[in-house]
Amino acid sequence: MSYIDNLIANCEEAKVAKPMREFVLDELSQLDKIKTAIYIIEQVSGDISETFNLLSKYKATKERACPALNSPSKVMYVGSSTTGVKSRIKQHIGDGHKGTYSLHLKHWFNGDYKITIMEFAQPRDVLQIIEDDISERLAPAFGKKGGNNR
Questions:
Q1: 1 CB contacts (<8 Å, ≥6 apart)?
Q2: How far apart are the C-alpha atoms of 86 and 141, rounded to whole Å?
Q3: Of 52, 74, 118, 140, which shows the fewest CB atoms inside 10 Å?
């Protein structure tokens, strides 16, 4: 199968894919057995422009690797993991290595946020298309588009 044929097949699979389950995260232990998921981190209260400016200032300190700045939005970040979503969420919360690109929330953000988890059974290439579609629709304040290999 050619690259284009494979891409089209993956897009067709992504169009009809539905999460096996979806929930708002209450505690990290809920993620113990989830490998493949898309997550959405949303600001629950406060001024989205102020939040955007806060991360912009924090990013400028170069204390930690922070995501790309897009534009203010209540949706802070859309991401995915195929190797265990728990460790990725911990990085975003701020318990990860300083060189890992993530939100590092506890180091600069004092507001309330929620994390929605959508567990999928699709392979990485299909999951990336689904994530890109969600990100395109929700226009998160932070993060680049496309997978790490794009």
A1: 9
A2: 22
A3: 74
Which residue range(s) make up the domain with 22? Answer: 3-138
Beta strands 21-24; 113-119: pairing state: antiparallel
* 119 in a structural domain: yes
How many degrees, rounded to 5, is the angle at CA 77 between CA 35 and CA 20? Answer: 35
Q: Is residue 77 part of a domain?
A: yes
Q: What is the 3-state secondary structure (H, E, C) of the chain?
A: CCHHHHHHHHHHHHHHCCCCEEEECCCHHHHCCCCCEEEEEEECCCCHHHHHHHHHHHHHCCCCCCCCECCCCCEEEEEEECCCHHHHHHHHHHHCCCCCCCCCHHHCCCCCEEEEEEECCCCHHHHHHHHHHHHHHHCCCECCCCCCCC
pLDDT computed for residue 144 by the predictor: 85
Does residue 146 have a pLDDT over 50? yes
pTM over 0.70: yes
